[in-house]
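A quick aside before the break. I want you to see a complete sequence-to-structure record at least once, exactly as it would be stored in a machine-readable document. Don't worry about memorizing anything.
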Amino acid sequence: MASRIRLDLDTQNPDLQDGLQARIHDPLWMLGRQWQFGEFNGADAGSPAAAQVIIDTAAVTRYQPGPRKGTFPARPYATDSLALETLVEAEPVTDGSRPNWRLAAESGRHLLRMLETARLGPSRAQWLGSTYALAAPTAEQAKQIDAASLSFIRVLAGRTIDGLRFASRVRGLQASNTLNDVFRDPPLDQVPEVDRPKVLGVVTSWLTWLDTLFQQGSAPSAWIPERMEYALSIAGNPAGGEVVLTAPEYLDGRLDWFSFTTSSGNGLGATESRTSLTDAFLPAPVAFRGMPSTRLWEFEDGTVNFASVQAAPQDLARLLLVKFALEYSNDWFLLPFELAVGTLSQIRALVVTNTFGERFLIPHTSEVDGPTSPWRMFSLTNDAQKLFFLPPVLGPLLESQPIEDLSLLRDEMANVAWAVERVVESATGRPLDRHEAYHETLAEQPTSPDAAADGAPLVYRLGTTVPDYWIPLLPVKDGSTLRLKRGVLPAFGEGGIQGLQLPKGRLLEPNRELLLYEEEVPREGARVTRSYQYARWIDGTTHLWIGRRKEPGRGEGSSGLEFDVVEQREERNS
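That is the input. The structure line, written in tokens, reads:
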């Protein structure tokens, strides 16, 4: 059984006031204090004075979305053009089955502004009289749109053009190399021949603006709906052969070197992109705010107090941090070396020269402590080439409020797992609180005449009603495992069942069957969100995309689902 011993120094007198004053007496006393602190002891050791290093680097050149053993093919990846999080998370902003009315209106207005600025093309009245005018939603569409979005759409309908519909038409003509056919459609058929090349230039510039407004991913996606998380693999080709790094569970929106493990099996076809770097530099002592001074009577930074760090006896991480800061911080040196982002590096040789002119070849930690050494900082799991991975990942970024917020929880009273759509993306791309929308819908429903005429104080119900944003997850057998299948509940209205309560967000995959793994809905639950991300990459470009996150939930929930119950009649104001 493993054990450990730690010695802690203590004082006989709990009052440290006299010791902290560091009073000075006669010169002999000062010599005695120097002797007590070991300042008269010589050490036959030098400090690092110079260092030379040889490093081989190989760029990451391949990316595979999805599980390592999946069927999705790998594709080229240039780390200097796009961050890894952006590449993995980016998804289409618009869905063919759910039009984004706000984006359609804003993109259409931008096209009209560009044409008016260039004094080209049809007039606004001609555009609004064509098939490209933003049309009001049909009666069937209006039933699926919330009140705020419906008001927005009705205000803009007929007052601008549908930019998404026009963009779809232009993209189709570009794909078939028949872009000039756009002038066969009204109102562009009214454009004079002499102006058509200029109009095409404006339309092409507008389409480029629209296509680069968002970073939109392409199929296949790295998102695994059954796990509610991402999975991906990347590969580079260092001198020891191709290395595949896999992140099997990416869910919190932050990737780093410790998110990856070295994967065996077939490679991803990474190309050779190796560079050998040699450099010489001066080692610098590690310094940070609040570190102890090397001399007794030297004043230290008073804004940092490591003694105030609260650490329990079993809190080894904090104890290690404090011990390093207070006892070993002045024994470390820094050898700064710049590496390209998105590279796998291997130190071929590191030679340090001390102040006595002695040269030392510094070995890898695994050669000193053995392959089972507990020191694994910056080491990849299952890595046999002793590589250092500098991932092409983002630093700080801007994140919007969730445009979709899903809670996965268990209801022990009803013995059912639920997926609760707390927030979904509205028809105008804004967050829609489904709890508020549900109660607004209830308030608008008229009271049943039969129920109003019946004065009985109690009401019998075969089953209680569950809010329409609560989606059941039903257990089903899938081979030898148990899955949670997304189910549906009937939507009741006047005259009985009026349909089914289907999910309105994208996370629950309403257009396909969804079988969640049972362990993805633990007792504490889980929260899955979609939100806009905005960040700048190393080449100066900015990127806007939609990403997904998963985090622990807030415990169990109660849907209020009961069967065969008698309830007190609710009094409703007419």
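Two observations worth writing down. The radius of gyration is 33 Å. The longest strand covers residues 48-65. We'll return to this after the break.
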